[in-house]
Structure formats: C-alpha cells, structure tokens
Write a structure and sequence with these properties.
The chain is an alpha+beta fold. The chain folds into three domains: 57 residues; 85 residues, Alpha-Beta Plaits (2-Layer Sandwich); 46 residues, no CATH class. The chain is built from five helices and seven strands, in the order ααβαββαβαβββ. Strands 2-3-1-4 form a four-stranded antiparallel β-sheet. A hairpin with a 2-residue loop joins strand 6 and strand 7. The longest helix is centred in the N-terminal third of the chain and has 60 residues. The chain starts with a helix and ends in an 8-residue tail after the last strand. Keywords: Coiled coil. This is Zinc finger DNA binding protein.
C-alpha cells in the first residue's frame, strides 16, 4: 500500500462513518469535475489550434494578395520618375523645366511630347523645394533618363524611381542596414550588396535572407 493511501486511511480513521462517506463523495465529485474540466480544456485547445492554423493560412493569403497589389501598383509607376532639386516658381511649366534640366545635365533629349504629365508632389514647405513627379509616355525614355542619373553627381539635382510606400520603406531599411552606397533600385526592385553578393527584393522581409 502506498504511503499516500496509508496517510489517507490514517487521516480518515478518526472520522465518523458519515464524515468518511461525505469525504469519499466529495473526492469522487472532485475527480469527476477534474476529468470533465480537462476534457473541456482539451476540446478548447484543439479548437484553438484549428483557429490558429486557419489564422496563419489567412495571413499567408493576405501577404500574397498584398504583394500582388504592390506589384500591380509598382507596375503602374514603371514610366514614372521623381526629379529633385529644381527650384519652384509660381505658374511654372514643370514639363519644360524637366526637359531643360535633363538635356543640360544628363545629355538626354526629352521633348514635352515625351511626357504624359508632371507635377510637384508633397506639401508646400517654406525654404523647401518639392520634387517633380514625371510620367513619361514611353518606358524606354524613362529608362534612358534614369540610366544617366550618375551625371547628376556633384549637382543639387537627383532622380529616383517612383516607388510604392512598401518599397520606399524597404529602400530606407536597406540603406540603414547595408549603407547608402550599397543600395539602389532597378525597375522598382530594391537592390543591395551583402557580403559582396548582389541581391534584390520587393518586400522588407527579404532583407534578412
């Protein structure tokens, strides 16, 4: 006989038959309740794991859809560039300003007819020049301009691709992690050098791979 049972019997030896009966009933009820509670908990945990798996699957679908939406949005911007540094004046013709700057600094001939539309972007802030968003008619003309962007070095001007918010956030994170000189963009993809290897991606989670 185990020590626990001996102690239980010894503890009950001083009890009346009625008290012993009540104690046994109480223990039986407690054991039954414990079993039922454990069964309920097991059922709840099983449902929890099912819901957890469903939520995980739903989140994966959301991630896929988010990436697809971002890809479509970036594709719609494939002919766009943002031009920085052109002084802002009242009643300006941004198409003409962009054409003049690109021809003078990048040695690329762009006519107003090559531009679908252009305009300043961002809020007006005193002593600050807003960039000009330019949408070219043809992708090849946009590429020709962007490929000559290095000629803007040592000037107050610069040009960048028109990125979605998701990709712009990724670009900033990549520059912080790998350094500005090791990060660039190409056709809307973020490119970077990591340990001498060239890598690319479209979402911020890819920076840790």
């Amino acid at each position: 006989m185990s020590k626990t049972k001996q102690e239980s019997i010894q503890g009950m030896s001083g009890l009346s038959d009625e008290d012993t009966f009540i104690l046994k009933i109480t223990k039986a009820v407690a054991d039954t309740l414990e079993t039922k509670i454990n069964q309920k908990l097991d059922a709840i945990l099983e449902k929890f794991h099912i819901y957890e798996a469903q939520i995980k699957e739903a989140n994966q679908h959301i991630d896929v859809l988010t990436k697809k939406c971002d890809q479509l949005e970036q594709y719609s911007r494939r002919n766009n560039l943002r031009v920085y540094g052109i002084p802002e004046t009242k009643d300006e013709d941004t198409n003409l300003l962009v054409c003049q700057l690109i021809k003078e600094k990048l040695n690329v001939t762009v006519y107003p007819e090559d531009i679908d539309r252009s305009h300043r972007v961002g809020r007006e802030i005193s002593n600050s020049t807003r960039p000009i968003l330019v949408k070219f008619i043809a992708y090849y003309k946009k590429s020709e301009v962007f490929n000559n962007k290095k000629l803007f070095k040592k000037t107050p001007y610069s040009v960048s691709e028109d990125l979605t918010k998701m990709r712009y956030d990724m670009l900033k994170a990549a520059k912080t992690k790998f350094g500005k000189s090791h990060v660039w963009t190409s056709d809307g993809r973020i490119m970077w050098l990591s340990n001498g290897q060239r890598k690319s991606g479209e979402c911020i989670s890819e920076l840790s791979k």
